[in-house]
Amino acid sequence: MKPAPALAEGFPDLSGLRIAREPHWFRWISAGLIVLVLAAIARAFANGQIEWSYVGRFLTAKVILEGIVNTMVMAVLAMALGIFLGIVVAIMRLSPNPVLKSVAAGYTWLFRGTPLILQLLLWFNLALVFPTIGIPGLWSARAVDVMTPFLAALLGLGINQGAYTSEVMRAGMLSVDIGQYEAAQAIGMGRLRALRRIVLPQAMRVVIPPLGNEFISMVKATSLASVIQYPELLHNAENIYYANSRVIELLIVAGLWYLLVVSILTPLQMLLERRFARGTLRLAR
Amino acid sequence: MTKPLVAIRSVSKNFGEFQALKNVSLDVRPGEVMCLIGASGSGKTTLLRCINQLATIDAGGIWLDGELLGVREHGGRLHRLSEREIGRQRLKTGMVFQRFNLFPHKTALENITEGPTQVQGRKLDEVRTEALELLRRVGLSAKADWYPAQLSGGQQQRVAIARALAMKPMLMLFDEPTSALDPELVGEVLAVMKELARSGMTMMVVTHELGFAREVADRVVYMDQGAIVEQGRASDVLGAPREERTKAFLSAVI
Questions:
Q1: Residue B114 and residue A187: Cβ atoms within 8 Å?
Q2: How many CB contacts within 8 angstroms connect chain A with chain B?
Q3: What ipTM does this complex have?
Q4: I need a surface site. Which of A146, A261, B86, B126 has the fewest CB within 10 A?
């Protein structure tokens, strides 16, 4: 074996020397400025016309707690309706049938194209258009009795959500390789079975981050149902301040609860993502 | 002469302006191993996909096991079959894809049991036993609970072959099964295919592996520009081609 060629002189040995810590002046200065600004804001609120004792007292008031329960019930049910509609509409949108396709596109166009609060008001006031509703000859009822604030909020929020979710679902399905459809067909699966067994489970992985986002939006969008008398968190907070005039204190109470719920939802989303990441390399043993 | 398992008669297929298949006719006998060779775009993959009805033909007819595929003749016209009937016809063929197309969210075993349980409605217990036997046959007993992403390309393709076999097809279609593999992994897949050929399975193989064709194929079909140019015994077509185009192709490949 030939000996390694001799190395050139003039390059000192640097092994054993450590890399010095950088001073990062700008980080220190900017952090200091932000602390000052935050302190000023905190001082302003402390000296402002806020009775913090009211915030503490109403944070766990029964009406507020009922409000947050109603908010969560509505958010979960409306989201479930939205996801169900979203999947159905996305499948219709991707179907070769031009009738189904146009119906799906029309649905998305209509419910994305009008404000959510307007849709809620329309559902709630449906009785003005149709005094009685029902199936001719079988069953009928007065619309005011059927269209409760709960049902109006569920339909308004859920159907609106479906329009957005359908686009998320469609993106998820399009992200699945065409070879997966073909492999499913090759073992004799029909279109719907291939969607359910093969394509949708894979689409879920792509779809969960945006859906988590949508659900967080939904939790907050339920507050719009306060305009149709659904007793969710904001509506109940408003009712209290109509009585005691502690407007800001009760808005802070509501705000803190929304923040808490959203903070809990974020790690839950990560758990779900992990569940649907089955089989991807990140989890390789 | 025995009845052909596959009878292809005057089949044409267009993609827009492009004629992928031009008036192709061909018979495949039961137990025969046929290799289809030719440059890319010559129509060999399209022909395979038409037999599995992943592509529909524009003219002509394909009969599998005596049954006309995809359409029914009635009152002087051809009527397309329903999705369900096409699904039933597809069960007679097993397809192996160039890019494996395993279901990534299912383990190797689940990939194999999916079709028999979901499509054929069979009991998971008995299907599982058969699936484990198929995994043993392709040399992957130890990988039953692994996900596709944890397997090498060669292992994935062997699982894909087992998945196709689980449906108990009478015809196996291979669409360039080794083209997406690293060179050192080609052999293990070809070995499984050779074993399958020896077991008497009828096979149509689109391939660039001329060594495999020479060794295993009963018949080699050379296609160019959507038509069959030359066919015959492997030793004749590959060893002493008659057509100029075949000669040119073979000298370019080897």
A1: yes
A2: 81
A3: 0.91
A4: B126
